[in-house]
Amino acid sequence: MSFRLAAFRQRLIFRGVFLLLILATLSIALVLLTEEKERSYVNYQQVLQKTYAEIMARLRHPTGRLMLLNPQHSRQNKAPLSPLIIPYSAIDFTDRNKALQAVELTGCAAQYKDGSSLCAAMGYNPYAGAFIYLVGNYKAHNLVGREPKQRDFENVDHLIIQVNLPEENTRWVVPFEDHSKETEPSKWGRLPGFKTEEDRFTAWSKADRDFRGWIWQNEGCIDPSKLSEECAKETFFAIRIPVDRFKLNKSNIKQLSWPPIPLNEVKIQLQAFAAGQNQPLFDSNNTEVTLPPTLEDISQILTPGETLKIHKLGTTNNTMLTLSSSHQLATTSAWYQGLIKRLPTNSNLSTITLNDVISTPLGQYEIQLTGDTQTVDRVLAVTSYRMAWYVGGMILAIVLAWIAIELGVIRPIVRLTKQATKLADNMQQSDLKVSLAQLDFSHLKGKDELGILATVLDNLLQRVKDDLQREAIRAQQERDMWHAVGHEIMSPLQSLMVLHNDKEEVSHRYVKRMQQAIQVIYGTASPSEAFTEATLQLGLLDLNEFLVTVADNAGFVNIHNVQFIPYNEPVMVRADEFSLEDTVTHILRNADRYRVADSAIDIHIETTTTMAQIHIYNQGDNIKPELINNIFEYGVSEPSTVEDKSHRGQGLFVAKTYMAKMGGSIQVKNEPEGVTFILTLQRQ
């Protein structure tokens, strides 16, 4: 009893150690995750403040103010362009550098794939005039200006500008007037505007006084390898277009709304034509364009879980625009996210909100950035989920080690002890063979100490079993040998019986006795190994002459009416004559057994360039489908009667074995009224 208590105490301590290892591994992982979550919360607050500072700096820049003043602007509608309100009251279109500086600071220009650009803008101050400014550049050869009072602009470099408002469309033809001197290396000039609704190359009205524009062409070629007269040059223009519908109405100036209509309803198209050309050098309706930045671009700065709200102070709408990150966090299992969420932290805030105000010429905008701390949990769950596999692997290794010791050490000792006890008890029983057969140490073998001990016990047990089975095996081998000899003697004995058929002869009596003695052995034999190990003597054989002899002698083995149709020439094959005769005789006996009474057994030869085939046909029942694939296996037979035990499925097995040793094959197939065996040999 004390021994059992000591063993139980040791097992309890052993298992307790493994449980403590598992708990310690889990505790370390949870402590590390808790510390990482706390650091992630602190880092998230710092990163959120940096993100907010970056957004505010971007919105305070003229480009950001452009985005705030044009919340309706979107990158989806690429053509035609709509004007944007810029954070300037107007653009000095008479000064190239100032106009270019205003465009570059605000970023209002749409950039085209060929290097051209166009900024369609309006000033924020309605009192500065109801104008739309077009500032841009395109590539053109040497500009050709119009002559004074010239009305036909077909042979003049000119622009076509289409301004479409709701229920109002205006078309302008803008020719180039050269004001540069011959001594100046570059060209520049004025761009007067003519309203027209007719042919784009003519304008019969006078130029509009409020329409102003200037154009400048660089001296150098864009491609330095070309001559100045033949190359394309950078051409920059700045235009001011008057819009009557935008002019102030003094009667309702207090209720002024700027712009008076949504700018996304204003559509502008500008085309630049070279002198004498019908195809435009530049068309603003080209869809291969990158539009100016929008407030939607701010969402690319945001991370998942962050929301940016923009509200214009003094308006009825609570929120003008809400932006969130377009990025999606990877997901993990729900139970693991729940575990991360339940880890304790010092911060109890679920959201973090940052606010500030930006002033623009058209009002003040409140910028509010909100960060969701639950995003920290989701990010931590995604990043630490990979490490969780390592923790799980460590726990799995501990569990596997526990199971390996339980199954590989403790349980084998118990089972080995039980088997040894049974062996000691069974050695005293009377029926030793039956009792030893129930014992087995093989499943306990191995390379460790317990396995070696089990191997020694199993070897001792096997020696005892071998001694008991040795006599039975020896006797069985002797019977198999005599059965094989008896089977091979049966065929010549039957031939002798035909030759000595007279019952009055003494030889007939002795042959009959020999046949009966061999029948006792042959009737129960199954010696497949003897035929498999037989050695054949191969040589050249005339198959045609050989089959003539077999057919003539078939009657001596009691197989009558065998008909062979000789081949028209000798057919030489490589075979063992006696083994091939034995093979054919086995097939003839099989055909004689199952053929229709008094019907003939037909034999003929078919040849190819490399092979020769013996076809043996008998009229009779077909072979059953369930047997046709197995009849050449040893022991497969269909006796004609239950009492007939001489047919043990050995003859066709012998035929198949001999044919294989001669490098040939044997096949069988059912015919409409019988069965055909096909023996195939290689021709020589």
Question: Can you summarize this structure?
Answer:
This protein is 38% helix and 21% strand. By secondary structure, it is of the alpha+beta class.
What would CATH call the class of the domain at 74-293? Answer: Mainly Beta
- Residues in helices, as a percent range: 25-40%
Biggest sheet, in brief? Answer: 9 strands, mixed
Estimate the strand proportion. 15-25%
In the CATH hierarchy, the architecture of the domain at 74-293 is: Sandwich
Remind me, CATH topology of the domain at 74-293? Immunoglobulin-like
Kindly state the number of beta strands. 25
Shape: elongated
Low-pLDDT runs of 5+ residues are: none
List keywords for this structure.
single chain, 684 residues, alpha+beta, Immunoglobulin-like, Heat Shock Protein 90, 9-stranded mixed sheet, 5-stranded antiparallel sheet, 38% helix, elongated
